[in-house]
Structure formats: structure tokens, C-alpha cells
Amino acid sequence: MRLNGEIEEDEEEEKVAKSLNSQTYSTGIGFPQLQSQNLVVGYALTSKKKKSFLQPKLIRLAWNKGIFFVAIDLKRPLSDQGPFDVVLHKLSGKDWCNIIEDYRQKHPEVTVLDPPDAIEHLHNRQSMLQDVADLNLSDCHGKVGVPRQLVISKDPSSIPHEVNKAGLQLPLVVKPLVVDGSAKSHELFLAYDQFSLAELEPPLVLQEFVNHGGILFKVYIVGEIIKVVRRFSLPNFSKHELEKVAGVFRFPRVSSASASADDADLEPSVAEHPPLLLLEKLARELRRRLGLRLFNIDIIREHGTRDVFYVIDINYFPGYGKMPDYEHIFTDFLLSFVQSKHKKRPTA
Ligand SMILES: Nc1ncnc2c1ncn2[C@@H]1O[C@H](COP(=O)(O)OP(=O)(O)OP(=O)(O)O)[C@@H](O)[C@H]1O
Ligand SMILES: O=P(O)(O)O[C@H]1[C@H](OP(=O)(O)O)[C@@H](OP(=O)(O)O)[C@@H](O)[C@@H](O)[C@@H]1OP(=O)(O)O
Ligand SMILES: [Mg+2]
Ligand SMILES: [Mg+2]
């Protein structure tokens, strides 16, 4: 069977994998001292993800803490591998979803990060923001909503009429409805008039552009932990610009660049992080409603306000390698499963 995403095992991992699979927990040279408090993490990641996430500093620290990463062999049945305490995965495709769901049912003692149906919820730009909209979060720390948006499933010729009917304000950010990890699903456009939109290929989401001073906050969530970083984003547009410009323009993945805006010289009203209490509440609610432990939230502050925020994107298992201190945060998170391991696995 062919699955999307390739996995490579390096020599060290292969040795550990063999040792684990044969269940002879060897302690010879080059092998970890496997003890009951150790944790075996099977992973199924694209080679891009493996490179950005499984950095030597993470593997080293994990090893010192008794956490061992073992590549899952996609050519062999998952149940024949391991035993794993935790399975980390980010691969696309229905086949993988079925495999991991089946494994979850048969191995309730293994923590699968995260359930495939919960991840699937984030693969659609409409359903991904629905929980934020339902939350209607507005308390003394600020207000969090989602930009007004419209889904165009087919027939691009109906777009100008649909946009007028929904009363959406220009410009609009045009996003592919489905996010499947492909470069195409991250191809975004800015539309200055509704007529040029008819050139684009549905299914699409048309989202109102919110001026936010060119700065975006990426809120990384790892279980209970929250880490916020500043990134550069699209600049504000002016009414004047809107009168002058027409058409649809593709724009690059500006906020995904590893260049952080954390040290940039910014206006304090733009640079100030959203209140931590607000983010904690948002993260707690989303963790519960989405049923996910590994995700990030892209959040912007409406320009000219102090406390009006919009969530524009949620990503499953994002680029944690770009998160400061990720190796400590992630290993501590994984260690929290050592205790549940003892509760779940009855001793012989
Ligand atoms: N409604 C909006 N208002 C203003 N800027 C926006 C809006 N939506 C998106 N952007 C800008 O476009 C960028 C990409 O949008 P978005 O995050 O939705 O796309 P993505 O392809 O899912 O990105 P990622 O790489 O984070 O997965 C944002 O980071 C932000 O800079
Ligand atoms: O490319 P990076 O490692 O940085 O991570 C990006 C990740 O790509 P990868 O999972 O293939 O690695 C993207 O996933 P897909 O939507 O394409 O599945 C998405 O989550 C981005 O938001 C991440 O960037 P960040 O939000 O953290 O800046
Ligand atoms: Mg984004
Ligand atoms: Mg995204």
C-alpha cells in the first residue's frame, strides 16, 4: 500500500526499533537503558516534518530523559510494531486515517496524538473556525471572533452576486477551502473587487481582510502549554488603495517564514501580545472542543483597537521546530504520558 509522505529510518532508530520489536530490551552499547519509566514514541511524519521537528537537540534531550523516538514503518502493519506508549503522526490521506483509527481502537493503552477525525476537522477552513465562532469569547480580557467569511463550493460565476448578498467588505482574502498539506492549499489571494474572483477555482473561502498592523501572533499549543510568537504579516490597506486597485493578487506565505518579529522595532500598540488570560481561555476551550493537543492558532488584533482579536487559521501539528524552547516543552509534555502509561498497562 502507498501512503502519502515518506519515512526514512536512520541507523540508530533502526537499531532501537529492532530491539523494541523483538521485545528483547537490550542494554548493550549504543542502546538506551530501557526501564519502566522510559517512553517509546512511534512517529509517522512526512520527511519535511521529520527534518523540522526531529532536530538533534530534541532527540538528544529526549534520550537523556528516557524518551525514544522510533520511526513507524509504513510498509508493515502498525500493530506488529512497537510496543509504543505514544504515537505521533502527521500524514495526509484516507488510508493513513483508517490505519491510525483502527490502531486506536485496538490499542487503547497507546496515546495517539491526535485522533484522526479531530485532525480532519482542521482540514476544512470553514469547520476549523466554527468552534471559535461558537465560543463567542468576550470577557474582560478582550474579544475573540473570526472574520466574516463565505464558502464558494462551485460555480465561480455566482461569486459577485454571493459577495454582494452576504454584504462582505472588500478586500477579501481568498483561501482554498481544503487544507491537505499541499503547497496548493496554502496558495492565497487578495481580491480587491468581486468580479475578478470569478477567475478563481472553487471550493474556496472568501474572508474579509482585517487590518492588523502587519503583525500576527502564532499561539502554539502543546497539551496544557501555550507559547506565543510574533510574526510579520500583510500590511494594512487604505480606502485610497481600494479605490485605485482592482483584480486578484497572489501573495506569499509571509507569516510562515521562520523570521520572527519578536525583536523588531514595532509600535507598542501593535506589538503587545494578546492578554495571556484571554489566550489561556481560548486555548483551553479549543483543546476541549477540538479534541486536539497539538496545534497552533493564528490570531490578529484589529488595528486601532487594544482588545479585539480575530482567529484566522488553526493548524494541526505545526512547525514546532520554530517555537523557542520547543525541545524542553515537548519532552516535558511527552513525559506526562509516563504516568498514564503505568495506569493504563497492567503489570504482568
Ligand atoms: N482575514 C485576514 N485578514 C488579514 N490577513 C489575513 C487574513 N487571513 C489571512 N491573512 C494573512 O495571510 C496569511 C496566511 O493566511 P492563513 O494563515 O489563513 O493561511 P495558511 O496557508 O493556512 O497559513 P499557514 O502557513 O499558517 O498554515 C496569514 O498569516 C496572514 O498574514
Ligand atoms: O513548515 P513548518 O514546519 O514551519 O510548519 C508549517 C506546517 O507545515 P508542515 O507540517 O508540512 O511542516 C503547515 O502544515 P500544513 O498545513 O501544510 O499541513 C502549517 O501547520 C503551518 O502553519 C506550519 O508553519 P507555522 O504555522 O508553524 O509557522
Ligand atoms: Mg496561518
Ligand atoms: Mg494554516
TrEMBL record:
Residues 141-335 form the Inositol 1,3,4-trisphosphate 5/6-kinase ATP-grasp domain. Binds 2 magnesium ions per subunit. Mg(2+) 1 binds at D298, D313. It comes from Juglans regia (English walnut). Kinase that can phosphorylate various inositol polyphosphate such as Ins(3,4,5,6)P4 or Ins(1,3,4)P3. SUPFAM superfamilies: Glutathione synthetase ATP-binding domain-like. This is Inositol-tetrakisphosphate 1-kinase. ATP binds at residues 125, 175, 207-218, 233. PANTHER family: INOSITOL-TETRAKISPHOSPHATE 1-KINASE, INOSITOL-TETRAKISPHOSPHATE 1-KINASE 2. InterPro entries: Inositol_tetrakis-P_1-kinase, InsP(3)kin_ATP-grasp, ITPK1_N. Monomer. One of its GO terms (biological process) is inositol trisphosphate metabolic process. The keyword ATP-binding applies. Pfam families: Ins134_P3_kin, Ins134_P3_kin_N. Belongs to the ITPK1 family. Keywords: ATP-binding, Kinase, Magnesium, Metal-binding, Nucleotide-binding, Transferase. One of its GO terms (molecular function) is inositol-1,3,4-trisphosphate 5-kinase activity. Mg(2+) 2 binds at D313, N315. 1D-myo-inositol 1,3,4-trisphosphate binds at K49, K90, H186, K218, N315, G319.
